[in-house]
Amino acid sequence: MAKDKPKISLLLSGGGARAAYQVGVLKAIAEWYPRVHHSPFTIYCGTSAGAINVTSIACYASCFRLGVKKLEWIWSRLHSRRVFSASAYGMTSYLANQWFARLQADHHARPPFGLLNSRPLRQLLNQVNNYKRLEKQILAGNLHGISITASSYKSGQSVSFFQGQQELTEWDRAKSKGRRSLITTEHLLASAAIPLVFPATRIGQAYYGDGSIHQLAPLRPSLKMGADKILIIDLINQKLSQRDPTKAPGLAALGGHLMDTIFSDTLTADLEHLSRTNSLLQALPESEQKMLGMKIVDHIHLFPSQSFEPLAQENYCHMPPMTRALMRLAGISPKDDAAITSYILFEPAYINALIELGYQDTQEQETILRNFLK
Predict the structure, then answer these.
(1) Distance of CA 291 to CAs 5, 42, 111, Å?
(2) What is the Cα–Cα distance from 36 to 263, expressed in whole angstroms?
(3) Is the pTM of this model over 0.85?
């Protein structure tokens, strides 16, 4: 990694099955480079499903196209049964065990609650990720740092677990801290544990859940690791049609609204703060910027051009019957609102549609992105 080249950070936000869109974006970018070219990114930051994506391609920082191709291969062949127990027996036995565990005396350790059993996802991540490659990429200079953000249920803080070059230091800020760690499957499961949907994961002496919770500054890990540029691939849901304002929102509408807020609103606020800071720094001489220990950080914010909901409604029939039954019992109807469905619809038809959407959106911005990644 040349020292005079800018450090470009890839930041992937969370969104469950929606993260397939990020794969399409990366697929388009990878085609602009030779087959054995190193990654244009030296810093990787991910939250929730985005954490799973950045870890997969960071393992192949020395061969960007190979890493993206492997990631696409995994996502395009994904099924719900590879993410959570989707069979009738698997779901009923898991929920029964959850219920019986809470009938036991308080001195018995109770498992963390989740409607869906994420054990298949654990097995999948252990199969496809070679975490030892991360340290090899760091030692070779191809990888400056990788950060996985999770939320601590013990402290109520956002914790970014990072692995990278020796000069990277830990940080403590309001409601946020960074801790050096060797990235493992436990960190990815914790970051992707959507509250109530997937159970929390224990790391050390505390349980952690989805990294988007309490994450007031999603850009902070990239900035703390010295990024000069940040490419953000967001999974915000475009509301193309307005809901009838006279109709009271149901459980699906409320749940979808809350999840969209968790995954997107803090990033929007942090981007506004970064833009204001850049504007102020541009008015200062470069010498004063160095005295302040600050620098201008350029960024591009990519997000889907279309709403996820029509695609989720179209492919809802592919969801496992037991999952649909569970949603019905919870009062969630995809006919009323498909926002929640768009997070857990891990089926090939839906995923491939999102990959294609991400690919086409990126091709339309090829010139801007090529100049940014130089």
Answers:
(1) 22, 26, 51
(2) 34
(3) yes
Q: Decide: helix, strand or coil at residue 124.
A: helix
Secondary structure in 3-state letters for 12-70: ECCCHHHHHHHHHHHHHHHCCCCCCCCCCCCEEEEECHHHHHHHHHHCCCCCHHHHHHH
Predicted confidence pLDDT, tens digits, the chain (374 residues)? 555 789 999 999 988 899 999 999 999 999 999 988 999 999 999 999 999 999 999 999 999 999 999 999 999 989 999 999 888 888 888 888 888 887 776 766 778 888 889 999 999 999 999 999 999 999 999 999 999 999 999 988 999 999 999 999 999 998 899 999 999 999 999 999 988 889 999 999 899 999 888 888 899 999 999 999 999 999 987 665 555 566 666 656 666 666 666 666 678 888 999 999 999 888 888 778 778 878 899 999 999 999 888 898 888 888 888 888 877 777 676 555 677 788 889 999 999 999 999 999 999 999 999 999 98
- Rounded distance, CA 69 to CA 124, Å? 17
The Cα 78–Cα 74 span in angstroms is 6
Q: Which of 115, 171, 135, 122 is nearest to 58 (CA)?
A: 135
CA distances from 129 to 142, 245, 301 (A): 18, 46, 27
**Residue 112: which of 153, 82, 84 has the closest Cα?**
153
